[in-house]
Amino acid sequence: MVGIRRALALLLLSFYFWQFLITALLGPEELLPAFIGLTICYGLAFVGIAAEWFWARWFAIGIGHFGSLFLISLLQVGFEPTIAVLGLSHVAVALFLAGEGMAARYERSEATAERWNFQEESLVQMRRAVKSAGMSLPLLILYTLGPQPDASELVALGLGVGGLFGLLRGRTWGLFALGGAGLMALAHGLGLLGAPSLGYFSLDPAGSMILAGTAFPLLAGALALIPLSFVPAMIRFVRRS
Questions:
Q1: 176-230 pLDDT, tens per residue?
Q2: Which of 54, 125, 181, 209 could make a disulfide contact with 160, Cβ separation 3.0–4.6 Å?
Q3: pLDDT by residue (tens digit) across 22-40?
């Protein structure tokens, strides 16, 4: 069933890629950057899964976890079919890509072992870091690219994007860039760097279903700090060397 599950995950990622692109083009002009950012995230996950890049499964599962967070909002607004479908379809993406059989196509494939030669501990840490980045990056996009973002919010987004790139390239600075983005997002959510822009989310080009709140920067900040769990392993490696 690995091939079927992979195809279904690609189908859902493709659907949201086009949905966010259409929303960006037809929706309110002030929300264009945020939805273009989401379009890029889902497009990257789609291409990575299709191309069988070793990290793509983790990143797509992180995006699945991001979308499933919207199920929590049902506790506040009551049952809303659009939000329920959004959340459950993202849960499905994460489930379709789970399992050792799927991992054998990506991080545990022979090609990955030959090129990267990951140790088991490094593989576990990398999986955790990329999943958290896949979950936190859309949240960073939603709160930093909302209407009238300030310069510090754009810096946080830049650190998050750069940190993900560095992490996937195996660069130490990528971890600290993600950690910096997380700290800045938490500071915005707590009001330490001024009032944050509210995160916006909508599946309707007309903007009729919009969720907003400071939960976006707080969640993004907490998740972006997870890659710093690499640091103790780095310290142990330096001491052994």
A1: 888 888 888 888 777 776 655 555 565 555 544 445 556 677 777 888 877 777 6
A2: 181
A3: 988 887 787 788 889 999 9
Q: What is the pTM of this model?
A: 0.84
Mean pLDDT of the chain: 82
